[in-house]
Amino acid sequence: xxxxEFIDHLRQRFAxxxxxxxxxxxxxxxxxxxxxxVPAGRQVVVSxxxxxxxxxxxxxxxxxxxxxxxxxxxxSDLAAMGADPAWFFLSVALPGMDYRWCDDFITGLxxxxxxxxxxxxxxxxxxxxxxxxxxxxxxxxxGTALRRDGAQPGDxxxxxxxxxxxxxxxxxxxxxxxxxxxxxxxxxxxxARLALGRALxxxxxxxxxxxxxxxxxxxxxxxxxxxxxxxxxQSLPQHPALAALEDDERWALQLGGGDDxxxxxxxxxxxxxDIERLQQQAGIALQVIGETRAxxxxxxxxxxxxxxxxxxxxxxxxxx
Length: 320
Ligand code: ADP
Ligand code: MG
Prior knowledge:
Bound molecules: adenosine-5'-diphosphate, magnesium ion
Largest sheet: 6 strands, mixed
Mean pLDDT: 94
Number of helices: 9
Helix content: 25-40%
């Protein structure tokens, strides 16, 4: 497959999808640039995330998984902002043009685009070490986007799903152990919590998606908001796949493992009784794990009241 054949193939496979969503670009793939139209009263939310082979995924991962995840991690940023996905751009560097690989990659990408209701509006294709950069654009009513900087002391700290599953799968994969099937899905096929992000608009005071580890990402939210928080470790979500681990190991994985793509958010305490309804709206379990408080820093409290210190605190590139 040549470069233009890949682009053509993408365009054809996305054409049918384009008919089924409301935000078809006015001018999409095929010209020098795309043209999109922003409805009156709405703001555009933009984010970009790059996936590099052997850094963010293994080169021999299924091509469909790579395609789906490249878009999912970007949709997750829109979810964290409470935005409705609208358009995305795809820039790929490919070492070669393996037809089968490209076709599978597009299949995964298309599945995730359908899940997110997002339109492919353009991109760039080049030869090089396998790298995928997606840029997403979403829409929100002006002024309603969820941000990191609005948490108030006394808010509930809530997390969706079960952080730690993706980290468990990666650990099992690295140790060449049998990988738990749900943990594998969390790692290879993360689902952006778009419905949750939408449901939180006007309710959550701050929100972040958990990509670098719950403790690290929550710390970013706290710093932006100018407050601290206490997390009770016995309140962390439970999962059968994590049940065999020693407590300390499980907590380290749940707080320090990355790649979860769950949402962590703060909710004024009067919404405590709405959590059940939010769960239903969002289709994902929600768990109150602690509270924010005046001051700064994140305190991790063991069931016996002692403090837990996290061995490895979030994923950071260039850290070694
Ligand atoms: P130019 O040289 O003007 O940048 P390209 O040949 O790079 O044009 O791209 C032609 C058209 O195909 C553009 O509309 C571009 O957005 C689209 N395109 C190229 N690569 C991709 C891709 N990987 N995904 C989506 N659209 C792409
Ligand atoms: Mg180009």
